[in-house]
Amino acid sequence: MAEAELMDGNLVAQQVRKGLKDEIAAAVAAGGRRPCLAVIRVGEDPASAVYVRNKRRAAEAIGMESRETHLPAEVSESALLEEVRRLNQDPSVDGVLVQLPLPRHLSPDRVLEVLDPEKDVDGLTVTNLGRLCAGEPYLVPCTPRGILTLLDHYQVPLAGRRAVVVGRSRLVGLPVALLLLQRNASVSIVHSRTPDPAAYAREAEVLVVAAGRRHLVGPDWVRPGATVIDVGIHRTEDGLAGDVDYERVRTVAGRITPVPGGVGPMTVAMLLANTWTAYRRRQGPTDGAIPR
Ligand code: NAD
Questions:
Q1: Ligand 1 proximity of 263 Cβ (cutoff 6 Å)
Q2: Which site among 42, 68, 108, 177 is 20 to 30 Å from 115 CA-CA?
Q3: Domain 33-116: which topology?
Q4: 99 is catalytic
Q5: Consecutive 10-residue runs of the chain (292 residues): their mean pLDDT?
Q6: CA of 35 to the centre of ligand 1 (A)
Q7: CATH architecture of 141-264
Q8: Pocket flag, ligand 1, residue 210 (CB < 6 Å)
């Protein structure tokens, strides 16, 4: 039986990181300061601790500075916002992210209202999402940017193609749909209120699944030969699983991302790319161009 081409996020992310490392080394050799990523972590969520550690290691491995503010779970909203403002003002910091989820008494929306959009390396502020909607993307959410980078690496045609995105979150579904639209795909978004989402999915030449439901997508959702991007991450007794039933879908799809080793590594690489973008813009390009 034919098998889909595997889209190797580890490989592509490594190439991205290598490119960034070289560019940073050149900037530092020319007398520049190092780019700096600051992460705020609140409380003791074990998964958040792992994610933050991975992000910091990835930043340091390419020659960036990384800082972490660890606040107690019971921190007040005003103290958290004060820390965000402090990092906004710190001229040696280029990117700031607040690791989610936050404890229930803290609102991510309030944080995003305060965060300087020029340092918003997760691309989640209203300003950066608005820039994306207006067709002038600047700091784009990391997972969607990573998905487009992966599609480009594997030269997946997008213009004029049918794309279906499963999920409409601010973090993944909505921005990835906008990015696909800007690349001239014809995009449908399906979500939890869509009757028969599989019927839409079966039309897709490019199918992006970000539903947060383990193995939601089986072979009956997939058009033969389609490119299938699995964003989902689920911890199971057998390790990580995605929203796509990989073993069964790979016999139908033309290309597919595995979990782990697909979209996940791209997300971290794009966080670094966004930090580098913010750094260069803050260094002040003289021609007014937005660095990409
Ligand atoms: P979310 O819960 O915010 O959004 C899920 C979306 O899926 C919603 O819009 C909902 O309407 C839709 N949905 C839910 N069930 C559905 C169904 N049965 N049919 C159609 N649509 C349905 O989740 P999110 O933040 O967008 O994340 C989605 C998944 O991606 C999660 O598993 C998350 O862990 C993972 N994730 C992975 C990365 C990565 O780097 N790989 C990054 C972010 C999120």
A1: yes
A2: 177
A3: Rossmann fold (3.40.50)
A4: yes
A5: 92 98 97 97 95 97 98 98 98 97 96 98 98 96 98 98 98 98 98 98 99 98 98 95 98 98 98 98 64 52
A6: 31
A7: 3-Layer(aba) Sandwich (3.40)
A8: yes
